[in-house]
Specification:
This protein is mostly helical. The protein has eight helices and two strands; from the N terminus they run ααααααβαβα. It has one domain: Helix Hairpins (Orthogonal Bundle), CATH 1.10.287.
Length: 232
């Protein structure tokens, strides 16, 4: 257990990657496969809850933010797909707020560190992935509130028709924006969608600049301290 705790962010990162890799694979599978994937997603959310949020007040806030998404995930199995449209915005906002709060806590904890280790670096990378998924949720929410806010290549248009595929598609858009790759097979065309896109680019650059600078600074400070002790 001590070894597991010392690599908790590595475990979290593995769970996040597993969820993102499996998400586009279950959309048209049997109901049992989709249900199993949603359980895996719930397990990843619990992992975020236990690993990222260490204080009681943080977990309380996180639970409040995540409750709508949890409730709507359950409701999706009892509500026909065609009736889900009004609920997609609520789900997207709930997920984005929960994930955004997790990213904020990760960044804060990095700045509180006096010494940075391998697992802390992995935690920073997990935060970067959570940032991308949070923005993907916001894009999905915009499309739910204002359909046709994005133009989608006809070859992949079908992915908007199913819950898991849709979320995977907007995560894909988010990570291409996050990395400034811009494949242009899904493009924001509505003014608010355009605004979200440049805001994500700015948040990604800020995250990388600030977090990487903090990690490098702590590493240099540790190296300088070790060198000073060797001289003494």
């Amino acid at each position: 257990m001590a070894r597991l705790r010392s690599h908790k962010h590595l475990v979290l990162l593995g769970g996040l990657v597993a969820v993102l890799v499996m998400q586009p694979l279950v959309g048209r599978d049997a109901l049992a496969a989709r249900f199993a994937f949603d359980l895996l997603t719930a397990a990843a959310a619990v992992g975020v809850m236990l690993i990222v949020f260490v204080h009681r007040w943080e977990r309380r806030v996180a639970i409040v933010l995540a409750l709508p998404a949890i409730a709507l995930t359950v409701a999706r199995y009892t509500i026909p797909e065609g009736s889900l449209a009004p609920l997609r915005l609520a789900y997207a906002l709930s997920a984005a707020l929960f994930l955004g709060f997790a990213v904020a806590v990760i960044v804060r904890d990095i700045f509180k560190r006096r010494v940075i280790g391998f697992d802390d670096v992995v935690g920073a990378f997990a935060g970067y992935i959570l940032l991308g998924v949070a923005w993907g949720s916001l894009y999905a929410g915009v499309e739910a509130a204002a359909p046709s806010s994005f133009t989608v290549n006809p070859a992949i248009q079908w992915q908007l028709e199913e819950w898991h595929y849709r979320r995977a598609l907007f995560n894909y858009l988010s990570f291409t924006v996050l990395a400034s790759m811009g494949y242009n097979d899904i493009t924001p065309i509505a003014p608010f969608a355009n605004t979200l896109t440049w805001m994500e680019v700015m948040s990604a650059q800020f995250y990388l600049a600030v977090v990487v600078a903090q990690i490098v600074g702590l590493k240099l400070a540790r190296a300088a301290s070790s060198g000073q002790r060797d001289v003494d």
